Model the fold of this input.
Amino acid sequence: MKKLVLLRHGESIWNKENKFTGWTDVDLSEQGIKEAIEAGKILKINNFKFDVAYTSYLKRAIKTLWLALEQMDQMWIPVYKSWRLNEKHYGFLQGKDKSETAKKYGPEKVLQWRRSYDIAPMPIPDDDKNNPIFDEHYKNVDKAELPSTESLKDTIDRITPYWENTILKQLQTSGQILITAHGNSLRGIVKILKNISNEDIIKLNLPTGIPYVFEFDDDLNLIKDYFLGDEDKIKKLMNKVANQAK
Done:
């Protein structure tokens, strides 16, 4: 049996402040640090032993991975970072308060920007200092590939080549893999794994710091998937994610 664990980073400072984050490289909050540590503990209790781990270029995901692996005494395993696992780019919304934005533009419009499958927020200008083409993180990435805004579809299109050509191939030869990333990038992987429709994937709310396990047979047929943790707590956290812009 093969296992893939998806772990959304712990609460970030801007999660706590209810701001759109996207590619902005904000740190974990104190609560986020606790969530990452707890994720590592529950993975250890459940005897997960990872062969390799993947994460994004953003520190909230990287630190979550470090903290979880530290709890498991597995910081020595190979770790690979890719910008393709970054969060959805929220364009002009990045750094804005979600509730205040809903008041200004209307909750339906903000929900469309946040959760529609193929409608992206307005982009940030090409000369904006926060555009990723000016960010040292991405100095080795073709500028034509760097987004100034993204829909969920754009995010999934960005992730898919890395999933198919790198992670999936690794899963064929490994027993257990951990991916620590973001709400929308992980939502994209879940869509691919479970063949979820465009309409239904936007309803999936991934809570921060909760391991999401996928089990496969040796031919990579999905057997089952489940969250690790208290069911009632997980439902409350999912509702909290769904209601962020209200």
Remarks:
- The chain is about 40% helix and 15% strand.
